[in-house]
Amino acid sequence: LKRLSQEENEELLDVYLESVNSTLAKVPWCRLDTMFSHQHGSGETNSQGHNETLGSIANSEEVSVFLGNFVQFLCSVVQQVSFAEDSDGFEPTHLILQKITELVPDLLRWCQPKLESQNGSCMSRYLVHKLLVLMIRLTYQSNIKCTVFLSWLQHLQRHFHGFLQHRFKSVEDNCLEGSPFFVSLSDSEVNETHSNHLQRLSVFLFLRCSFPLLYSSRHIDNL
């Protein structure tokens, strides 16, 4: 996907995004919601005859890996959509952004078992990181409504409140400290490092959602 952002591949990028738009429109999202949502815990029998709840399916590592790959894919698509809009105003891009924006609450619900263990496995931290990155990238789209920002603030409070409540720690000279890309850390520091990075992303997303609401409120007051 990164290679598609090069200027010589603009035509290929348009074809790719057209395919993405068509695929997203055809996915049976209601069926996926039934499969992934941990809140629907009615018992079902799997192909091997074992009784499983949909909640236990949603907690399986296989589903977590799928959701991680899917969220990463959406992050990349949003980035490519931004490039296509800057280059030639490709028409289907707003449909892609609209659909991905609509999917955010579903993604948060599907990933909730992992989000609830924010200091747990690598997959938990990966999902938190990618969901925050996806939402941050979407905030740069000019057509997002204030109701969406308000909804995301509520989701931040519900799913990422732990990152918002802690104070920032002082940063040393190295500007990458606290980032997953700062590799010269001991194993005992890795978990804290990831938490610091996710905290910064959470606070940044909080600000990205808050400022449009403040601007909108001030604009209404001046009318």
Automatic annotation (TrEMBL):
InterPro entries: Protein_Lines. PANTHER family: PROTEIN LINES HOMOLOG 1, WINS1, 2 PROTEIN. This is Uncharacterized protein. It comes from Noccaea caerulescens.
